[in-house]
Specification:
Layout (H helix, E strand, L loop, with lengths): L3 E10 L2 H11 L3 E5 L3 E6 L2 E7 L12 E7 L2 H10 L9 E3 L3 E7 L5 E7 L5
Length: 122
Amino acid sequence: MEGVKWGIVVIGVKNMDKMVDFYTKTLGFKLASKDEDWTEIDSPDVYIGMYQKEKGEKNYGAGNSSISYGVRSIKDTMASLKKKGVKFGKVEEEYEGYMTITTFEDPEGNEISLVEKKKGCE
């Protein structure tokens, strides 16, 4: 995929402390940030974002995870992927001049996002 600059995998967790211990102590990844309901783990070439699931909350998206990739140009990346048969389910969304996001799904229904941060917001 052309233009990829970074990636983050987002997973919902039931026990944040247990998951942080596993990713940092067992796997040896670095804790990038942590607060009450959001944690980021710095793993090689991709961050792992974890959010605290509410009791009874279903998985995020159709599958268990959501993967986001930062790209230089959403329009160029979308055009390239459309040529390969990727169908984008959501229209691009702009968030207060900070970033533009578009999504599509993998073959098992997990959401994949392309994110283009605006200049000065990187």
